[in-house]
Amino acid sequence: MAFVFIFDVAQSYAEDTLQLTQQQLVNLGISLGSLESAQQFTVLNAPAKVVIPAANEYSVSASQTGLIAKLNASMGDSVKKGQVLAEVNSPELLATQRLYLKALNDVNLNLLAYERDKKLITEGIIADRRWQETSNQYNTLVYEANELKQLLEIAGMTVSEVDQLAKSHQLSGQLKVRAPITGVVLDRMVKLGERVNLQAPLFKIATLDEMWLELNIPHERIGRIMAGDEVLIDDTNITAEVMLIGQSVNPDNQTLLVKAKIHGKQTEVRAGQTINTQIIERLKTKAFKVPNTAIAQHEGKVFVFVRNAAGFTVTPIAVLGKQGDDSIITGGFTDDQTIAIKGAVALKAQWLGLGSGE
User: Do residue 126 and residue 176 come from a single domain?
Assistant: First the structure.
C-alpha cells in the first residue's frame, strides 16, 4: 500500500508539470509574460442616460391667467433664486389687488368700533353679546384681508410689493414670475405674447449639483450587481456609485432599472445625454489580469501554465470575470511569476499527451 501511495504522488506531480526546451517553446509559438495585478474588474458594460434627481427639478407655472409681456430667461440660462423670469399682464391680479385694498379698508373702518367696544366692555358699559358681535365682525374682516394678502403672494408678489400696494393703493396687473431656486433653465414652454392659463407650465428649472445615471440591465445579469458597486463613464475620469436597483422587470425589453449617483459636480456630462459605462467590482482577494489566450480548460477545470526552471507548472485557477480580450483570475500565484500568455492550446496538447503516457 505504501508503494501504491508513492506511485500515485509521483504520477500526480508528473501530470502537473510540463518539461519543454527553449527550442520547443519557439516551435510551439509560446509567448511569455508577467502576471499583472488587478484590483477590479468589469461586471458589465452598459449604456446609461444622465438624469437629474426628481427632487432637484422644479416646474414654474402661471399663478394667474394673462398674456406674456416679457421673457427674461431662455433655455440654458443660469438664474438666481427670486430672479424675474417673465412678466405677465393679468386682469385677475388686478381684481385680487382691488379686493385686498377693499378688505384693508373694511378692517380700518371696523377698527374704531372694535377698539371702542373693547374699552366699553372693560368698563362694564356694554353687554357681552354686543362685544362678541363686534369682535367677531372685526376678526372676520382681518381673516379675509390676510387671505387676500396670501393670494397675492402666491400669485407672485413679494411681501414688500404687497406692503407697498397697501400704502400707495396703486394697482398693477403686471405679474412677475420668479425663479424658485438658484439653478439652470432646462426648458421654456411659452413665447412672448402668448396667453397662458392658470397653472400652465412656463419654465423647468433644476440644480445641477447632483446628477444620476439610469442603466437598463438585462435581468439575467442583475445578480452580479449590488448597491455600492462603482460605475465608470467611458473616456472620462467620472465615477458613480450604484444607489438603487429596481424591483420589477420591464416587460418590453426584460431589463431592470439601475440608478447610480455621479460623484461630485460635473461639467463633462449633460442631463439627457446617453453615454457608455462600465459597472466595476472592487476585488477583495488577490487577483490578476491575464490574456484569454493564456487560459486552458480540461474536464471542467481551468488552468494557466506557470513558467518554471524545466518548463511549466499546470496551475488551476478561478476566473472571476472577463474584460474584452483579458480575464480576471485568482490562484496560488506570486507577483513575480511568469506565465504562458500565448500558446496555451499547444501546451495543453503537450500536457495531456504526457499525462496519458504517450
Answer: yes
pLDDT of 353 above 80: no
| Mean pLDDT in residue range 344-357 | 73
- Chosen domain end from 282, 303, 327: 282
Same domain, 192 and 87: yes
pTM to 2 decimal places: 0.63
- Assess whether 73 and 149 both reside in one domain: yes
Q: Where residue 242 sits, what CATH number does that domain have?
A: 2.40.30.170
Domain CATH number, residue 106: 2.40.50.100
At residue 236, the pLDDT reads: 87
Q: Is the dihedral of CA 84, 90, 94, 96 positive or negative?
A: negative
pLDDT, residue 39, reads 79
Q: Which of 76-80, 115-119, 348-352 has the lowest mean pLDDT?
A: 348-352
Measured CA to CA, the distance from residue 9 to residue 15 in angstroms comes to 10
Please tell me the predicted confidence (pLDDT) of residue 106: 94
pLDDT digits (tens, 9 = 90+) for 192-207: 999 999 889 999 999 9
Split at pLDDT 50, 70, 90, the class of 355 is very low
